[in-house]
Amino acid sequence: MAFENYTIKDIAKALNLSPSTVSRALRDSYEISIETKKMVLDYAEKINYRANPIARSLKERKSYSIGIVVSEIANNFFSQVIDGIESVAYAKNYQVVISQTHESSERERLNVEHLYSRSTDGLLMALSAETVDTTYLEDLMKKGFPIVFFDRVPAQLRSHKVIADNRQGGFEAVQYLAKKGRKKIAHLTGAKKLSITIERLEGYKTALMANGLDFSPSLVKYCQYGGLHQQEIEQAVAELSQEDYDAIFVSGDKLTTGYLQAMKEREDVNVHHVMIAGFTNSKVVSIFSPTITAIRQPAFEMGERAAELLIQQIESKHAVEEFQTVVLPTVLIEQK
After folding, report:
1. Is pLDDT of 131 > 80?
2. Which phi and psi (to 5°) does residue 277 adopt?
3. Is the pLDDT of residue 98 over 90?
4. Domain span at 74
5. Distance between CA 230 and CA 237 in Å, rounded?
6. Local structure of 113: helix, strand or coil
7. Band of residue 52 on the pLDDT scale cut at 50, 70, 90
8. Do residues 192 and 78 share a domain?
9. What is the rounded average pLDDT of the residues 105-132?
10. Rounded to whole angstroms, how far apart are CA atoms 318 and 294?
């Protein structure tokens, strides 16, 4: 049995209203009374009316779709951010198109240019580990293409940005380890130039200083691809094994699980000797062994806020000149 394809004109005829009134009621326009909106919406639900997205986009010159660019969808943190984005986007009748860079700046650029060429209305993105040159993003923004950055953000671009309080999260992780009596605290982190790497390292250094502990560059190990490749973590663990450290602050989900795996595969280290605190949004962190004190980011809220800012910018009748940097708090969760 074929579905009947009802139109706005069909609803208007059935309710003895003009098509423009029905259209405004369906879009929740302030120009239409609450009673008329309810009548239209009730009837639309009764006949299972669905707007024609192609006709709507042609009429309004909008695709009602937004792009998302992240390094890896399977990452716990990014999957939770995407959930937050979708909750807002779908409530506002926007579809989302998700792409992943696998930390490649070349793939990032191809994804962004594809999404732009497909007439998406705007973009939500976290920079890849390789990204240094953001000129092409600036050029798109100058053309009026809205981009909101989250988590990994470019300092030099004027745009809305939504981040976690990385400095405070790093500080609290190291403060926790120091208060537990640990004296030689290492740091495993991602690409040097990423905003999250810089900010979490600052928190690490500040906490060491606050607890009278020396900062040693040899205790900081960078993984260019943030744990995407296990070999880089294994190399970092091998180098750290020469340092006789008693605690470690780890800077991300992939790095945390990768560090545990690398440690358990080594026969020359006692995996339970090192106390671990790190950024992770894993839902099963409580079953990790050894235990990890988690610095949890408000990933869902980050996605919600980023999507709200993007849709506001898309729907603004004037060019946006004032931009916000939203900083969301992290939470330390101690595992007993």
Report:
1. yes
2. -135, 140
3. yes
4. 61-163+300-330
5. 11
6. helix
7. low
8. no
9. 96
10. 42
